[in-house]
Design goal:
The structure holds 3 protein chains of 3 kinds. Chain A has helices at residues 2-25, 58-94, 96-111, 114-125, 129-156, 159-166, 171-207, 219-228, 239-262. By secondary structure, chain A is mostly helical. By secondary structure, chain B is α/β, with parallel strands linked by helices. Chain B folds into 2 domains: 4-241, Rossmann fold; 242-277. In chain B, a hairpin with a 2-residue loop joins strand 9 (220-225) and strand 10 (228-234). The longest helix of chain B is centred in the C-terminal third of the chain and has 18 residues, at 183-200. The two termini of chain C are 26 Å apart. The chains are: A mainly alpha, B alpha/beta, C mainly alpha. At the A-C interface, helix 3, helix 4, helix 7, helix 8 and helix 9 of A face helix 1, helix 6, helix 7, helix 8 and helix 10 of C.
């Protein structure tokens, strides 16, 4: 049962990654060029899922969309991990007022919804892929900081770290040699879950017109277009949504599967 | 017809069917008290839970448990719920956690009444306070209005005793009821238990790892080891003429007053090495 | 810790968060490379005109002074004035608050109505098919973006069946039946998506209860598992769930902003998006601040209610002298 989760998660994530990579070199049709004579074709051949309101092949647009999703996910989750993990480790290792200040600030950022942050950035700089990534990344920092802090507290209290400390290893050497490697699995789980959230957030932002603008295809802005055509071509609204849902499902399952795999004690509860 | 007849009870758990209890049989007459003794993992608590029908979902039960002639094994959940707290009840080991922390103690006792007797609230309150007094709580009115965290371990255990006894059940199962308490409190609670059981005329299945405690409350004893009954008889027989080496070990360790000063104290292992030891 | 002290501490956290959030909002909206005056007048305005407008808007003052006067204004209910039409932000917000409030309220209630029973059953039957089914459905639901969920519901109930309106809003005072009809799909959308997230928390909170000794006690006195869970589990699970619902609240609000856009409801979210489109920074700033204030305030209130549910919290000071030896 739990192994199935991990496998399905890996397959779905793998599918997104492969699609994204392939789309760099090849798509069945041009994903941006308007073809006036071919508007709103139904599923068939050669357009497997049909064409959109501009006559562009939907499969091609979905493929490029996968690339955007991965790109935004990697950058924003990467940003959150690179900033959040050291901060969390610092809070866990230093304790005292450093811990208090770092975690209070993390709480404040955590209480600030990513969407509002993205809206503020879009209002100031104009909505783009960049503002979306920045907002999602900043909003995800606290989650990584918390995981890293909890994990490093746990590692510091363990016997092998006590032994290392007793033998005179410095605090920062311990952080590098013992704490960081032990945090890796926890951060991996968080990254997977964070990736799922990033995909949802990016999709919502481009749906609202606050992230990647047309003609560059994203799953979110494809749905925005599809909604306008809802009464004449309802199928249009199906594919991009399905792509988002499967990708999010994949990363969620991967995260859950990893967590169970790494910590069997959590199986019952979560 | 005996009050409780357990025959060839076998309980296993999970997909791999790990057996916790194997072919256990015994009977208990009305008003009689049977001590079940054994170390943790010997299957005594599982046996008790099987009698109550409270085993977890992944348990497989075979054999028969008859309470006053009606079969317990395989009965529907709602039929069993009707018996629990009314005809049979149970006192658990952990007084600190066995009560709902968010509800006043008096309401929790009254609940047992309402569930089975449909008593209206005014009368229930009187019965509850009276029962709390009967189990030896000094200020039953105040205790009834307290939340569990405001009571000591001994007080909580008496509250649980009151819950188990308020409907005058025919059978009370006590699973290590005093193990978590201080030794001095332990003696007081046992004394009270003896008193209320006698007053109610209830039969009792008393589970413990401590032969000394069992001998204070029970006349009959059954020794369990690795899921099986290895010895049964009166307390006196056990002390004087135990046949199984494990039982002899238990007897020796419970009679530390017989050890000479300066001598090494006896352990069960001196008598019984066991297979997995 | 004493109850009053706890409340004071929580209030301190609230004030600190408010300060932090306001600073964040202020700094972001004032980080514009040019400035508002330039944007308003366009690139071909004379430097004199820009300087005059800057002075008029108070933009020539140092940033800390601007921040403090903005914050001071908010404390007395002045969220600034729109650059475009000069109207006070609060006056623009006022007629729209109700729309968003209804949506958040129904969304949250709906999600609880779905997630509580579903999560309980998922916990109780976690080893058989009802449990698996609910968990799997929740896992799928969590992957559905709220706006796609909305679009799908519109496709089925408006485009397909013509049962409910696909967009728009009618105030309650004007026509209650129409008001309800226009809120059904948005509320259900929000509720379903939120419920999917909530079910997991409810499930694990109840599984915790199932492993508690008092749950076994409840069953030993004659409750069936389901009724034992209702009677003794609900309140105990609520203690851990209250915190979760507090956190959920901000995601419900965010969800509402998106849902408003799907169904073109004239709420705070659609106003915010319009203001972003028009680059009306003061309105964006004021609306975001208002929303954050609401989130922080409500989550503080939720935490206080937590003190009321759990008797151990409020009574901890009393228990020391109330404890007597048996």
């Amino acid at each position: 049962m739990k192994r199935a989760q991990l496998v399905i998660g890996l397959v779905l994530v793998g599918l997104v990654v492969v699609t994204a990579v392939v789309s760099i070199f090849w798509t069945p049709f041009d994903p941006v060029r308007v073809v006036p004579g071919q508007r709103l074709l139904g599923p068939g051949w050669p357009h497997l899922l049909g064409t959109d309101g501009f006559g562009i092949d939907i499969v091609s647009r979905l493929m490029v969309g996968a690339r955007t999703v991965l790109f935004v996910g990697i950058i924003s989750v990467g940003l959150a991990a690179v900033v959040g993990v050291p901060l969390g480790m610092l809070a866990g290792q230093a304790g005292g007022w450093v811990d208090e200040v770092v975690m209070r600030v993390a709480d404040i950022v955590y209480a600030f919804p990513a969407l509002l942050l993205a809206i503020l950035l879009a209002a100031v700089f104009g909505g783009s892929t960049l503002t979306a990534m920045a907002a999602i990344g900043i909003a995800s920092i606290p989650a990584f900081a918390r995981v890293a802090r909890a994990g490093s507290l746990q590692v510091i209290a363990s016997d092998f770290v006590l032994a290392a400390r007793a033998s005179g290893t410095s605090r920062w050497a311990i952080a590098g040699r013992h704490v960081l490697p032990n945090l890796a699995p926890l951060v991996g789980v968080q990254a997977s879950v964070g990736f799922a959230l990033a995909i949802l957030a990016e999709a919502a932002l481009s749906y609202l017109g606050l992230a990647t603008p047309r003609p560059n295809p994203t799953w979110g802005n494809m749905l925005r277009d599809a909604q306008e055509l809802m009464w004449v071509a309802p199928l249009q609204a199906l594919w991009p949504g399905l792509a988002i849902a499967l990708a999010v499902l994949g990363f969620n399952l991967l995260g859950d599967g990893l967590r169970d795999y790494l910590d069997p004690r959590l199986r019952e509860v979560s | 017809m005996s009050l409780l007849e357990v025959s060839d009870l076998t309980v296993s758990f999970g997909r791999r069917r790990v057996e916790a209890v194997r072919g256990v049989s015994f009977r208990l007459e009305a008003g009689q008290r049977l001590g079940v003794i054994g170390e943790s993992g010997s299957g005594k608590t599982v046996t008790a839970l099987a009698v109550m029908g409270l085993l977890p979902e992944n348990a497989h039960v075979s054999g028969s448990v008859r309470l006053a002639g009606t079969e317990i094994v395989g009965r529907s959940e709602s039929a069993l719920a009707g018996l629990r707290g009314d005809v049979m009840s149970m006192v658990f080991q952990e007084p600190m956690t066995a009560l709902d922390p968010t509800m006043r103690v008096g309401r929790q006792v009254a609940e047992v009444l309402r569930l089975h007797q449909g008593a209206e609230s005014g009368r229930a309150r009187d019965r509850v306070v009276a029962m709390l007094g009967e189990v030896g709580l000094a200020d039953p009115e105040r205790v009834a209005d307290a939340f569990p965290h405001q009571l000591s371990g001994g007080q909580r255990q008496r509250v649980i005793l009151a819950m188990a006894l308020i409907n005058s059940p025919d059978l009370v199962i006590c699973d290590e009821p005093t193990t978590a308490l201080d030794v001095t409190v332990q003696a007081l609670v046992l004394e009270k238990l003896d008193e209320v059981l006698t007053a109610a005329g209830a039969a009792c299945l008393f589970i413990s790892h401590d032969l000394a405690v069992v001998s204070q409350v029970c006349d009959q004893v059954m020794v369990m080891l690795d899921g099986e009954v290895v010895e049964a008889g009166t307390v006196k027989e056990l002390f004087t003429a135990a046949t199984h080496p494990y039982t002899r070990g238990l007897v020796a360790t419970s009679r530390l007053d017989l050890a000479e000063p300066g001598e090494r104290l006896p352990t069960v292992e001196d008598y019984y090495a066991g297979e997995q030891r | 810790m004493h109850l009053a002290l706890r409340i004071a501490r929580r209030f301190g956290v609230f004030l600190l968060s408010l300060l932090g959030a306001s600073l964040l909002i202020f700094l972001l909206t004032n980080a514009l490379p040019g400035d508002v005056a330039q944007v308003l007048l366009g690139t071909d305005a004379t430097p004199e005109a820009v300087a005059k407008l800057r002075a008029q808007l108070g933009l020539d003052r140092p940033l800390p002074v601007q921040y403090l006067s903005w914050l001071g204004g908010i404390l007395v209910g002045d969220f600034g004035h729109s650059h475009l039409n000069g109207q006070p932000v609060l006056a623009l917000l006022a007629p729209r608050i109700a729309v968003t409030m209804w949506l958040v309220l129904f969304g949250l209630l709906g999600s609880l109505l779905i997630a509580l029973p579903a999560g309980m059953v998922a916990a109780l039957k976690r080893r058989s098919w009802p449990g698996f089914t609910i968990s799997a459905a929740a896992q799928l639901g969590m992957a559905v973006p709220v706006f796609w969920g909305g679009i799908l519901l519109v496709l089925v109930f408006s485009v397909g069946l013509h049962w409910l309106p696909a967009n728009g809003y009618v105030p309650l005072a004007r026509n209650p039946a129409q008001w309800a009809a226009h809120l059904v799909l948005p509320s259900v959308t929000l509720a379903l998506v939120q419920a999917a997230v909530l079910i997991r928390y409810v499930r694990s909170a109840f599984i915790e209860v199932l492993n508690e000794d008092y749950f076994r006690t409840a069953r030993s006195i004659g409750w069936t598992p389901m009724r034992a869970l209702l009677r003794h589990g609900l309140r105990n699970a609520a203690i851990s769930l209250v915190t979760v619902i507090g956190l959920q609240l901000s995601s419900v609000l965010v969800g509402a902003i998106v849902v408003e856009s799907v169904y073109t409801l004239p709420g705070l979210g659609s106003m915010l998006l319009t203001a972003v489109g028009q680059r009306d920074l003061v309105v964006v700033q004021g609306t975001v601040m208002f929303l954050v204030l609401a989130v922080l305030l409500i989550s503080a209130l939720v935490d206080f209610s937590y003190l009321l549910i759990d008797p151990r919290q409020g009574a901890s000071a009393r228990s020391d002298d109330g404890r007597t030896a048996a």
